[in-house]
Amino acid sequence: MSLESSFEHEVSAAELTEFRSVVRSPLGSGAEGASPLHAFVLAHRGFDLTFDKLAVTGDVSRVHVSQEITVHRPLVAGERVTVTTGALGGKPEGAGVRIALRGVIVAEDGTVVASLVTGAMLSGATGPEAFGELPRYPMHRGTGEAVTVTLTIPEDMVPRYAVVAHDENPIHLDPEAAAAAGFPGVIAHGMSVLAVVTEELVDRFADGDASALKGIGTRFSNPVRPGVPLEVTFQPGENGVVAFTVRTPEGIALKAGWAQLAV
Questions:
Q1: Residue 63 CB coordination number (10 Å)
Q2: Which contacts qualify for 75-78: CB closer than 8 Å, 24 or more apart?
Q3: In the predicted model, is pLDDT for residue 29 greater than 80?
Q4: Which of 49, 154, 173, 253 is in the most buried spot, having the most CB atoms within 10 Å?
């Protein structure tokens, strides 16, 4: 059975505007154009279809552990794209199965808009058996002077993000569901944290030009509670690379973060 899934989607101006507005809300200012992370919103639907095709067994919960996005160009309102996703590999590991997924978004003229690699842990899974290959996460280091800023994910942003990202997992919306999953309260979406950090990075290092971002990635370490201060440290490197980490009072939330800006 093929683990590949594909669907077409017409990108609307409303979905691009609403998503960008939500992820920029902690910064207190608006911006035009698509978020560089909007590609994940489209690919996420395909990843769900791919998960449905995996021979997953056991009492399973999904944990997003890493994300890489290569941005060839921003999404444009009114265009029709094809989103194709599939599984790169899987490996039983400790209390679950680690999975790597790929996604590609292609325009009608055949050009690639964005490509993604998503890492996930299927906690509690006893299958599938090992298959394919788990790619190594890329490592980029900063060499310049570090800059630290403090950001927060407001409580009202979490349900708004759930709507625009089409991710209404109860642990982000229902305190009882979050408690049942072992959290002290609802947690922010990991990708919403990355999206806010991305907007701050673009403002600070690319003069607000989101099209200058050519790639971004991070590893998710610990959950983020809304309203908790996030200490974000950026460190520029060579050839347009900016490394970053995000800390909460409880520890590192995003680690080994990197962004590639046009040079």
A1: 14
A2: 75/11, 75/16, 75/34, 75/38, 75/39, 75/42, 75/105, 75/113, 75/114, 76/11, 76/34, 77/11, 77/12, 77/13, 77/16, 77/34, 78/10, 78/11, 78/12, 78/13
A3: no
A4: 253
Domains of the chain by start residue, with CATH: 5-261 (3.10.129.10)
Q: Is 75 exposed, middle or buried (0-12, 13-18, 19+ CB in 10 A)?
A: buried
pLDDT in tens, 177-209: 888 888 889 999 999 999 999 999 999 999 999
What pLDDT, on a 0 to 100 scale, did the predictor assign at position 1? 47
Token pair in block for residue 86: 């599939």
Q: What secondary structure letter does DSSP report for 250?
A: T
What is the distance between the alpha carbons of residues 107 and 52, in angstroms, rounded to a whole number?
Answer: 25
Residue 83 DSSP SS3: strand
Distance CA 227, CA 129 (A): 40
